[in-house]
Amino acid sequence: MGNVLVVAEVADGKLRKTTHSAVTFAKEAAAQLGGSYDILVIGAGVDGAAADAAKLGAGKVLVADDASLTNYLAETYAPTVAEIGKGYSVVCGTASPYGKDLLARVAGKLDAGFASDITSLLPQEGGKLTYKRPIYAGNAFVVCQLASDVEIVTVRQSAFDAAAEGGDSPVEKAAVAGASAAKDRIEWVNFNSVKSERPELAEADVVVSGGRALKEQFYEILDPLADVLGAAIGASRAACDAGYCAPDLQVGQTGKIVAPGLYIAIGISGAIQHLAGMKSSKVIVAINKDEEAPIYQITDYGLVADLFKAVPELTEKIKAAKA
Amino acid sequence: MKVLVPLKRVADPDNANKVKVPADGSKVDTGSLEWKANPFDEYALETALRLTEDGKAQKKRLGEVVVATFGPKDTETTLRAALATGADRAIRVDVEDEAIDGLLVAKALAKIVEEEKPDLVLLGKQQVDGDTNQVGQLLAELLDWPMATFAGTVQEEDGALLVGREVDGGQLDVRVKLPALVTVDLRVVNPTSVYSKVTDKEKFKYAEGVRFAPLPAIMKARKKPLDVKKLGDLVSDTAQKVKYIRYEAPPQRKAGEKVADVDTLVSKLKNEAKVL
Ligand SMILES: Cc1cc2nc3c(=O)[nH]c(=O)nc-3n(C[C@H](O)[C@H](O)[C@H](O)COP(=O)(O)OP(=O)(O)OC[C@H]3O[C@@H](n4cnc5c(N)ncnc54)[C@H](O)[C@@H]3O)c2cc1C
Ligand SMILES: Nc1ncnc2c1ncn2[C@@H]1O[C@H](COP(=O)(O)O)[C@@H](O)[C@H]1O
Question: Of A17, B37, B112, B254, which is the most buried if we count CB atoms within 10 A?
Answer without folding.
Answer: B37
